[in-house]
Amino acid sequence: MLQTVGEMDGSNHSGVSEFLLLGLSESPEQQRVLFWMFLSMYLVTVVGNVLIILAISFDPHLHTPMYLFLANLSFTDLFFVTNTIPKMLVSLQSQNKAISYAGCLTQLYFLVSLVALDNLILATMAYDRYVAICRPLHYTTAMSPGLCVLLLTLCWALSVLYGLTQTLLMTRVTFCGSQKIHYIFCEIYILLRLACSNTQVNHTVLIATGCFIFLTPLGFMIMSYAQIVKAILRIPSATGKYKAFSTCASHLAVVSLFYGTLGMVYLQPLQTYSTKDSVATVMYAVVTPMMNPFIYSLRNKEMHGALGRLLLGKAFQRLT
């Protein structure tokens, strides 16, 4: 049974002490399959992103702006899945689906902040690719270490502020009645649908800040790639065009995957938002962080070399 604030101590403004995360299925057989599937995907995500971070940290050849941003992106993805999947695995294995009110808001804060951070880092990486392809002679000065650190600090600060804004506004919302969440984590749209108080302020701020934190970087990335395409088309040789495009192909693939899955989940009115849109949820919350290390290392010779030196050490150097 869910306890109300009156039954506890009268201090919880939300009206509830916990929520029930029902996940994607209530069938015991399907839950066993989901447990092993998500555990496997989580381990692959953790190993992949940790290897990317270690390879970039220990290999001097990768101490460049592009790989600095990539290391931050991998850290963000690693933190993102760790914020949601372990709790889901515990729920699937133990059948204890309860998450406390404070735990739900904590999960919401990190979820919102990390998605925003992912988005801002991708925009920063687009700027890096724009400078590298469109202004190669000025790359060293335009992407100086000081500027890179400043850009990353700005990304982190904006994402923290965005997460705090949405989470603090959620503390004003009152919940009553059944608190069953047909989702794999505490998500802002789902919580707003469960509210029994006026959420107009939440909606307004969510739209205003969301447009700034997501659409502005998206517009910046579109403009950056428009300039990149123009610059590539001016290259006379086919080999030169291929080489220039290959330097940004991985980033373009990650951006498409990120915004594609995010759009599947959020480009719909709050009133028609489905709590059982499981495919889009899994793609956006689990598959995207898992795929990013593969996309960035698949055809990247520098990353192949760094991973080889990290895992095999001197044996790899003799092979090469």
Automatic annotation (TrEMBL):
Ranges annotated as spanning the membrane: 33-55, 67-86, 98-121, 142-164, 201-223, 244-267, 279-298
InterPro entries cross-referenced by the UniProt entry: GPCR_Rhodpsn, GPCR_Rhodpsn_7TM, Olfact_rcpt
A Pfam family: 7tm_4
Species this chain originates from: Zalophus californianus
Similarity remark: Belongs to the G-protein coupled receptor 1 family.
Name of the protein: Olfactory receptor
Membrane topology classification: Multi-pass membrane protein
Coiled coil location: none
